[in-house]
Specification:
FAD/NAD(P)-binding domain; alpha/beta; 18% strand; 440 residues; 17 helices; 5-stranded parallel β-sheet
Length: 440
């Protein structure tokens, strides 16, 4: 039976009121000028004119601020909620380096784009002319939506194909609720449609022939397929009730009928940002204990340091230098047998390689276990395209995000193995520009 939320999932960065936005925007020093970009702009992968849109808010021009954001980032509303601004734009704020609080750039960008979407503003002005080329975008995640929007804004016919019934990819279905309660993606997708993007949703491309038909019917194909399901790491006891993969766990949370964790002991396997999301949401759902299990030390954790601190602030414990061996229980999981680890020489990732300490096994009591240890690349799908090279399951691209097949481009998680939404936006913008340059 689904648990009842003990407290609402309050967002970490709730929306600003108009009064709060004006006060916050007025703090901005409006750095930069004709000879040097502001540090916050340099730190933004999407090249958003931060001083420009913040200045517009300070003048009371929220809708103009939205237009400035959309000039560089068509998914500015989504990025405003999920970007790790602490290590990007806000982390580069001059005020921070003066010992003051940085400008809350993410919340101001949300304020601007929310105002623009509510007013029904177009994301971009209409294209000056229609182009004759036709592009198919496979995948309706942030990379696919960005590429499609950039092409449509240039007057190019573009169709987005995705297996889900709604666009958005993992941003819509796998971002933890405490990061974004009111998702802007439905409004952003509707605005993309008004820009000229066509959608073929609920369409599975599950055979080489189906993929070839997409390619043959277009002048260019953009791959925005992201990563696949959770990494296929099996442990004895996987079949026990209470053992979850991270993506189904978060997607279930977002349906409003979260997993039953209240009063239970939750173990989360992994040290990345998804593991943090699962741990924080479990704590907010009222779990009696939440423990993250990570096989290296805090120094090697993939999660951002501010995310780790947030987890601790929510009451999450982190067990370092430990690795799961098996899940124990009869019908329901009752614990995770772990082994202590020690760090040896660095592996190919540059991080020190963990190795088990013989005879150090121990049992961690747990009623719910969530595996958050990465996702699988879509290697089979990608291998169906002639000329598309894979390295470690990731698509190999050049500086224009073009693959070895001159008609095929790719960006986002399919290329980088899983990074930020704004990195997907950046790559898709470059790819769209390159595609537009080669079309008539």
């Amino acid at each position: 039976m689904a648990a009842t939320l003990r407290t609402p999932f309050t967002e970490l960065a709730p929306p600003l009121s108009p009064e709060e936005a004006l006060v916050e925007a007025d703090r901005c020093l409006e750095c930069g000028g004709p000879y040097a970009e502001a540090p916050c702009v340099v730190a933004c992968p999407a090249d958003v004119d931060v001083p420009g849109f913040v200045g517009a808010i300070a003048r009371g021009e929220a809708e103009r601020a939205a237009e400035i954001v959309w000039q560089e980032n068509l998914l500015g509303g989504s990025c405003a909620r999920v970007c790790p601004v602490e290590v990007l734009c806000a982390g580069a704020c001059v005020l921070l380096h003066e010992g003051r609080d940085p400008i809350e750039i993410g919340r101001l960008q949300r304020y601007a784009t929310d105002a623009g979407l509510a007013a029904g503003l177009p994301l971009r002005p209409p294209a000056s002319r229609r182009r004759t080329g036709r592009v198919v975008v496979l995948g309706a995640g942030p990379a696919g939506l960005t590429c499609a929007g950039e092409l449509a804004a240039r007057g190019i016919e573009v169709t987005v194909v995705d297996e889900r019934a709604e666009p958005g990819g993992l941003v819509r279905f796998a971002i933890a609720p405490y990061r974004q309660q009111r998702e802007p993606l439905p409004a952003e997708a509707a605005a993309l449609e008004r820009l000229g993007v066509r959608f073929r949703l609920g369409t599975r491309v599950d055979s080489p022939q189906a993929l070839r038909e997409l390619l043959d019917g277009a002048d260019a194909l953009f791959l925005g397929v992201g990563m696949g399901a959770d990494a296929d790491v099996a442990y004895p006891g996987d079949e026990l009730d209470g053992v979850w993969e991270s993506l189904p766990f978060i997607e279930t949370l977002k349906t409003g009928a979260p997993p039953a964790v209240e009063g239970r002991r939750v173990a989360v396997l992994g040290g990345g940002n998804t593991a943090v999301d699962v741990a924080v949401e479990s704590a907010r759902l009222g779990a009696s204990e939440v423990t993250m299990i990570y096989r290296r030390t805090e120094t090697e954790m993939p999660a951002y340091p501010h995310e780790v601190e947030q987890a601790r602030a929510e009451g999450v414990s982190i067990l370092f230098l430990a690795s799961p061996v098996r899940f124990v229980g009869e019908r329901e999981v009752r614990g995770v047998e772990c082994v202590r680890m020690r760090l040896a020489e660095p592996d190919e990732s540059g991080r020190r390689r963990p190795e088990p300490v013989p005879g150090s096994e121990f049992l961690l009591a747990a009623d719910v276990v969530v595996k958050a240890i990465g996702r699988r690349p879509r290697s089979e799908l990608l291998s169906w395209l002639e000329g598309v090279e894979l390295a470690g399951g990731k698509v190999v691209v050049d500086g224009d995000f073009r693959t070895g097949n001159p008609k095929v481009y790719a960006a986002g998680d399919a290329c980088n193995g899983g990074a930020t939404v704004v990195e997907a936006v950046r790559g898709a913008k470059v790819a769209a520009r390159a595609i537009a340059e080669r079309l008539p």
